[in-house]
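I hope you will forgive my troubling you with a question about protein structure. The full record is reproduced below for your convenience:

——
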Amino acid sequence: MKEKIGTGLTYLLYILLSAAYVLGLFHSFKKHGAGDGFLGTVLFPYAMYRGVESFWHNDFAKVDWNKRLQADMKNCVYFIDQSVNPGADVYQFNKDIEEFSSRIRKYPQLKKNFLMDGCRKYIGFSRGIIEDMKISSVSYFKTGSFEFTKSKPVLDIEDELRRTFKIQDEINNIWTSLNEQFEAVKQIDISVLSTDKISSNMAEYEKKVDTYKTAYLANSGKVFQTLFGQDI
């Protein structure tokens, strides 16, 4: 009886050691690279160590999250903005966003939450700017005086995006682009237009802004869904 128990334990130990060895090799090649994997093939104890280590392995142990998330947030903004760029290479855009999303979806939940929060705020910020631009431009058609005024929600979100999410350059680029649009609106000399023509131009401009806002919200929502696998 004791002999049978001893034999059974020997077989069990053999199975456990073999399993640890196979698991260690798999883990070495997958998580630590080919060199580490080949080392395990010639050093049995090392492969077994990797097998045990796989249970507490942390893919992100050496990541500098401040730098990583700052860079990732810039990438998120890029994809959101490119979604309404008519000149974007659609094939390359889809390829890039799929590769990027597959990486960030593996992040710890708190890190993903940070990026999702930043994206939601950036989309809200952009939507607010579109509305503020529309209000300022319509006012110009009515009064002949152009003055762009940021609403308080836009100011508050912009401050948080700069402080917390570190996308100063991206926001500065938005204002540069808007200044060009402001100048284009100012080029319309309403003093020489009839009342009907002014009303027509104003209605046409409002329609264009509303169309752009609709497209922006739809496309940015699709980007958010692709990046994080959920609706905004």
